[in-house]
Specification:
mainly alpha; 8 helices; 88% helix
């Protein structure tokens, strides 16, 4: 899957890569490296910014909720109260929370401790995806650097397998 994503990204950004290649002259490794850095900047910086922004907003949300819980004045908006099935349950839970915030916080802490294993699973999945991302970036480098040779190889291979229709199918996939 990471190789397929790298191939798709290489195909979609190929015109930009050709501009970078003209800028670098006849140095495919340098142009592929610059293109990888450019892709990482265009994709990576907004993702990193979004992660920090979400972390900041999550922390602010936590502090604001904590302040409201201990004030004892949590109210349910009218549109939530009128929701079927969950409106009454949310209203009841917030009444209990307003009456005794400490007992609810202890219940939440017990629930979180019982579900800490999910954090390990999440960390495992994140590490797998980081490995896949690194593999995709490495594949993308080689697609950029050796793209024309790879395209010629695939075209010749398809001509051997399916004959003259190879060009049509390559255009169709593109």
């Amino acid at each position: 899957v990471p190789v397929v994503w790298a191939a798709i990204i290489a195909y979609m950004t190929w015109p930009l890569y050709q501009s970078v290649q003209r800028f670098c002259g006849s140095r495919p490794t340098l142009s592929a490296t610059l293109m990888i850095l450019l892709v990482m900047l265009v994709v990576g910086l907004p993702v990193i910014f979004a992660i920090f922004l979400l972390q900041h907003e999550g922390r602010n949300l936590y502090y604001e909720l904590q302040k409201q819980v201990f004030s004892g004045h949590l109210n349910v908006p009218e549109f939530i109260r009128q929701l079927p099935f969950i409106g009454k349950e949310v209203s009841r839970t917030l009444r209990e929370l307003n009456n005794d915030p400490n007992s609810m916080i202890q219940s939440v802490q017990l629930w979180i401790q019982g579900h800490l294993n999910y954090g390990k699973v999440l960390l495992n999945e994140v590490s797998k995806n980081i490995f896949k991302l690194c593999f995709a970036i490495m594949s993308l480098f080689f697609f950029y650097r050796d793209g024309p040779r790879l395209a010629l190889f695939v075209h010749k291979l398809l001509e051997r397998l399916i004959g003259d229709r190879a060009g049509y199918y390559i255009e169709l996939v593109a």
